[in-house]
Amino acid sequence: MRIGWPFVVLALAVCPAWAGGTTGHDPAGGGLPLVDPATCPEDAAGWEARALARSLAPQPGLPPIPHPADNPPSAGKIALGRKLFFDRRLSINGTMSCAMCHVPEQAFVNRELATAVGVEGRSVKRNAPTLINVAFHDPLFHDGRDNALETQFIGPLVARNEMANPSAGRVIARINAMPEYRRLFDAAFAAPASLDRMGMALATYQRSLVAGGSDFDRWYYGGDETALTEPAKRGFALFSGAAGCTACHPVGADSAILTDNLFHDTGYGWMREQVRQHPPATAPVQVAPGVVHEVDFARIMSVSAPREADLGRYEVTETPADRWRFRTPSLRNVALTPPYMHDGALASLRAVLEFYDAGGPGAPGQDPRIRPLGLSPSDLDDLEAFLNALTSPGIACLAKEARSAPPDNH
Ligand code: HEC
Ligand code: HEC
Q1: Which domains does the chain have, with CATH numbers?
Q2: Which has the least CB within 10 A, 23, 237, 300, 314?
């Protein structure tokens, strides 16, 4: 059964009908090639110094990385953070690392799962966001419940459905018992492992996962007219004009992180709650690649965890107006990080664009800027071309650095 049900979850994830009536195109990941570390020309040796330099110099199209004054970056912290990120011994039973939900070859998301699956197959109700450019996300999580990468990691470490440790202190004790970590903590901090120091190392490593210099950046900020295709240029005109996307995914004069870091009710969360409360009688389940069976929904639920309600920002503030509000995600590298939205139920960028074009579901508290757009199929093609032009070169090098040493599986 444990082998069976994540597959069911996957099948639900890729089914557009179940996703709320929006027509999807590709299945999750839809033939999207993996990020291939082998295509990075850089040497893996000495990567920490490169990662450090990258986190100190602004990347084309991006603002400088906001390093907290009490956690300046260093090559030692980056190397230690990388090792912690890949270490399955950070979970209760040594099975689960951060990198298993934020997979480097999948642009630091998990393309195969709409919503994450933690230790012993336990379901998490949300989609794992990419960690590329996470330095610019403030606050963190879809509901903004944490404010700093230095503290964020405690969440997954002790969440029963993620790494399931009974306490953070237990993890620290385990790490301090390992000589290899003694060396790395000494090199980074001249002190043994502690919760603070672990947070500082993980944060510094994640802040080095920065990537700008997309075709869009080279055109818009670099002035290279040939960098962007004509359809992508038309797509940007729509994005920043008639389609009104920059209201929440802004593009600044000098840089663009493509999120306002605020919370909005796009109607999507409400729409998903309607589907949760009124499930279909049957749902398609992919039993093998390309082989889909319609299965009685009650049978699916008998082997799946029930989907939890998700009230978004309200779960943090308990302010009624925050119900269904979610943090605007950055759109950088978005073409590499399907599936989309906080629960990953939209399999493709086209499905997201169709959601916006339809004006959302017309939910009671929906932001008025989400309204029918009346876009033509070629407008949607142009917008999609623009979103595709937000992919940075250099992602393969982030993956190569991440894989500079084998993960710790013992
Ligand atoms: C079981 C899968 C899983 C594991 C293991 C996991 N994460 Fe995540 N991560 C997620 C999901 C799902 C979210 C979004 C949760 C939410 O918003 O409520 C997330 C969110 C984040 C965010 C916030 C990103 C943003 O843009 O706001 C960061 C940072 C992060 N994870 C880092 C880590 C680190 C570091 C570890 C290891 C200590 C880790 N994660 C382990 C699934 C996982
Ligand atoms: C009112 C603010 C607002 C406007 C306007 C808006 N967005 Fe969004 N966008 C959001 C929020 C909030 C989310 C996350 C919703 C969720 O996860 O439930 C989002 C999610 C997305 C995603 C999914 C990203 C991911 O990683 O899951 C894409 C793509 C996107 N928007 C593109 C656009 C485009 C294109 C437009 C214009 C047609 C647009 N947005 C207009 C706020 C907005």
Answers
A1: 1-31+214-391 (1.10.760.10), 32-211+393-402 (1.10.760.10)
A2: 23
